[in-house]
Amino acid sequence: MKKFLNKAKDTFNDHQASSSFPFQSQPQAPLSQASLPSSIRPPTVTDLLRYRYHNGTNLGSIFVLEKWLHGSMFPKSSTGSSELDAVSASLRESGLDATRQKWENHWRNALTDQDLQWLVNTAKCTSIRLPIGYFTLGPGYCRGTPFEQAGEVYAGAWNAVKDLIGRARAYGIGVLIDMHALPGGGNKDAHSGSGTGKAEFWGSRRNMDLAKHALVFIAQEVSRGGPLEGVIGIQLVNEAAWQAKGMYSWYDEVINEIARVDGSIPIYVSDAWDLNKALEWANKRHCLKGAPPNPVVIDTHKYYTFDEKHKSKSPPEIIGSIGGELGELDGKSGSIADRGEGQVVIGEWSCVLDGKTWARVRSEEKDGLERQFGQAQSKKWQERAGGSYFWTFKMDWMDGGGWGFKQQVKAGNVSPPPALTLSAQDVRSRTQHAQSQRQSMADNGRRSHEDYWTKTSPGKKFEHHLFSEGWDVGFSDAQRFFSMRADGALGPRAGDGGDKIGCVEIWTKKRLLESGNRGEFLWEWEQGFRSGGGAFYHCVGV
């Protein structure tokens, strides 16, 4: 009977599913916990910042330098291309005071008010992924590391980070703090902070403990609010090395520690170039079976320029393959009632293709194909991910070509979600229309649900009222997210548009926990919740 019910649930989900609020419920063994009182409240501004679709850009090479982006920060005597190479050479050539001033100017001038206005009003940017290093937290975190001699340069770095986050928040933009550079290096590349060519973080208890302390410190700072109320999450590591030793155990360890500080902070983790394995790990972390409550998001990066498998293809071939991306999510997302959340964001992507790829088409075709390439990616990430962050916004050579967010937005090669392009009046009128249709849509949803299960499992006892309860919450949440910006909740400089619940899996997890519902028919509440959200988006046309 259980197998039959599971198959029937899948069939019902396929019938009901909406691409804007998807579900693919495949319930396993029923949970036996007793239900609890509901603690659901209307979504807050913090919820909006953390759980909406993140239409974003990276702000790379500001707190973790990369020579190819900011060669102006590297003295002539610098022999490498990492942050450590640059700061060490500057200290030798110019001394502490001049180096510290140069670095602080670089941090403080990274985003102007004009930049923030452009990000909000033109690019429709909702968040920034901000790479930092453990050294960014100041001299105390540099002791006993290769950055010890340069530690005083970073005495004001953390305050600069906080100021940047506060200024972005004033424009309605959230910030994902990305621990890009770990002690020893989470990968072999220079953007891990030091140019050793080794990933010495993994397997080093000392390095892993230092990074854990740094991340817990950031969580403590975020939990206090203030200038960091705009933080949408903390990323533990960037581009972890393939099959990194002890990575998932370390993830669990750090998440447990952060949960003790604040169980609401979203935690982002690298997939280490193996999304399927990362999703399998995440699915095992069931929030109703003892896992910490923190939302967990998997960061995967999508580039089509480095591997030979891409260099050997033409631009149309690569563009044609985009539609099949993120297939790893099939069967691993869409049901929080029986497994951990399968939430993914695209932490880095670009419009760059290798010269060998471009050589396969005529030069006059390039602009049009680059537009198709960027548009195909924009569309796919919005369909299946909780957000995407273009690499990158700032470099010495603005506007950055295929790597430049500004150039690609100007060229129309990347597009925001359509809801973000609506006027405030349009958002209000669409919301009013949806509200007028709410009861009839709720009745139709409940009727369809009940009719399906009466036909599929005659005589079987269900708790269909849970579907209706979930439907009401899902509809209300989608409506609140959509209208909050137009109602002024993000402040006068946040721009127009309507936000969607982009991080559907972790939001569903949060609401499922808050609902207090447990037991065999928890899946009915979840199906109703997802159906209600999907009904709202269908009604407002986004």
UniProtKB/TrEMBL annotation:
Pfam families linked to this entry: Cellulase
Compositionally skewed regions (Low complexity) per UniProt: 16-38
MF-aspect GO terms: glucan endo-1,6-beta-glucosidase activity
Annotated Gene Ontology cellular component terms: cell surface; cytoplasm; extracellular region
Spans annotated as Disordered: 13-38, 424-456
Keywords per UniProt: Cell wall biogenesis/degradation, Glycosidase, Hydrolase
Protein name: Glycoside hydrolase family 5 domain-containing protein
Species per Swiss-Prot/TrEMBL record: Hyphodiscus hymeniophilus
